[in-house]
Design brief:
mainly alpha, Rubrerythrin, domain 2, 3-stranded antiparallel sheet, 18 helices, 6 strands, about 50% helix, binds carboxymethyl coenzyme *A
Length: about 425
């Protein structure tokens, strides 16, 4: 017999079913509340509201657990390839060797973008932020593939759109960088794996051979896996809610990209490096900056610290911190910002303010240092996050579309003026 939650309102008792997930997470299903009582619930920032039931990612913020389709993030980051994880997230199971080969083959086939799109890049100013360019370009893909406009057209059409998007995102991302530095675009090389191909399009030049460093490709593979999904975060919830209007996948993902861009979400990786550079330029006194972060009259926050759901530690940050040390050592790089980051982490973790609020380094705290070591420019960091998050957004969109979820449409409590009569302009 399932549990029942009882609410008392205006002297009446209302009953609502309690639903339980496979990891024993419990929720009160209040979907009939307004119909029964006339009340709605209010929860700004959705801090306590589940928007969906999902079988993709399990996250326990108190225990620091993250699993994709049941598989621990630690195992996937260590052993899997990014395309394998993308398949797992989107189709629900680890692929067999044949299925993975066919998936990778399909992605490889679609890596080119339409030649006409090159003109779009050229129209952007060199200083254009690559996230703005990326979101626009992804939405523009819908204009080249009109068959994608109906997201329910057929399973085959849906798969083609998904594969196209996974294939083209690195090309669009790398070209947004090449355009910013006014270098010639490099076409994809389809004999390379996903990560190596991206590095080739970012850093190769038509005039010389570019050697792919396997340490770099493998570091990138790990970073992309760590970012691949994170259940109902700001950009994923955005992608689902935009997609729930039955708009095409490209438009829904473009919305996800713009949501990711903000410094409180994916934009934090850029903000962390900018913060570390500022601290460095200011003489490296981390205590001073920790004090600033604690000062309620100062808007400064320690970027890369804190998380809406992780209240113990972010398992992705633990993996990234170790990867950061390994990669810098393997590449023989000494980065003064890494020393500042470590000092800052130590001071903050011992400080009562941060302890009391459960503020720990998150995934973005160390990822920027790795991206720097790989030669990725700071403005591209959030683009890297978007490439990693794409399979998660797609998986969540697919689950929402195939589950027939209703259009996302929250309610509100109106607090504006009550009815009043219009006063003609001449009388005001
Ligand atoms: N530095 C200083 N104080 C902080 C910080 C921080 N980074 N983060 C939270 N706080 C304080 C905040 O001032 C508040 O204090 P009080 O209770 O005294 O008012 C308390 O901690 C709770 O913070 P909140 O803003 O209510 O928490 P939230 O769950 O709404 O916000 C967050 C989560 C990630 C937006 C926030 O911690 C933050 O702004 N962090 C810095 C930006 C960042 O690193 N974002 C990346 C998140 S991980 C990547 C991703 O998945 O998006």
């Amino acid at each position: 017999m399932s549990e029942i939650a009882k609410f008392e309102l205006d002297g009446k008792t209302y009953e609502f079913p309690v639903i339980e997930g496979t990891e024993n997470e419990k929720a009160i299903d209040i979907s009939t509340l307004r119909g029964k009582s006339g009340y709605i619930t209010i929860d700004p920032g959705f801090k306590n509201t589940g928007s969906t039931q999902s079988a993709i990612t399990f996250l326990d913020g108190e225990e620091g657990i993250l699993r994709y389709r049941g598989y621990p993030i630690e195992q996937l980051a260590e052993q899997a390839s990014f395309t394998e994880v993308a398949y797992l997230l989107i189709y629900g199971e680890l692929p067999s060797q044949e299925k993975l080969a066919s998936f990778q083959n399909s992605i490889t086939k679609h890596t080119l973008v339409h030649e006409d799109m090159k003109q779009f890049f050229e129209a952007y100013p060199a200083k254009a932020h690559p996230m703005g360019v990326l979101a626009s370009m992804v939405c523009s893909l819908s204009t080249f593939y009109p068959e994608s406009l109906d997201p329910n057209r057929s399973p085959e059409s849906k798969d083609t759109t998904i594969h196209r998007l996974i294939a083209k995102l690195p090309t669009l991302a790398a070209w947004s960088y090449k355009n910013a530095i006014r270098h010639p675009f490099m076409y994809p090389k389809n004999d390379l794996d996903y990560c190596s191909n991206f590095m080739h399009m970012m850093f190769a030049m038509p005039t010389e051979e570019y050697q792919i460093d396997p340490v770099v490709s493998s570091a990138l593979n790990k970073l992309l896996i760590l970012h691949a999904d994170h259940e109902q975060n700001c950009s994923t919830a955005t992608t689902r809610i935009v997609g729930s209007s039955q708009v095409n996948l490209y438009a829904a993902i473009a919305a996800g990209i713009t949501a990711l861009w903000g410094p409180l979400h994916g934009g934090a990786n850029q903000a962390v490096i900018e913060m570390l550079e500022k601290i460095d330029a200011d003489g490296g006194d981390v205590d001073k900056w920790v004090l600033k972060a604690k000062d309620k009259d100062d808007s400064f926050r320690l970027m890369g610290f804190g998380h809406r759901v992780y209240k113990n530690f972010d398992p992705r940050a633990t993996i990234i911190k170790k990867a950061c040390d390994d990669i810098l050592e393997k590449m023989g790089i000494e980065d003064p910002l890494l020393d500042i980051a470590k000092k800052l982490e130590k001071v903050a973790l011992e400080d009562d303010y941060f302890i009391a609020r459960n503020l720990y380094p998150n995934v973005d705290f160390y990822s920027g240092i790795i991206y720097r070591a790989l030669g990725i420019p700071t403005e591209m960091f959030t683009v890297m996050f978007a490439i990693g998050r794409l399979p998660g957004w797609i998986a969540q969109w697919k689950e929402m579309i195939e589950g027939g979820e209703p259009i996302g449409r929250p309610r509100q409590v109106y607090t504006g003026a009550t009815k009043r009569d219009y006063v003609p302009l001449s009388k005001r």
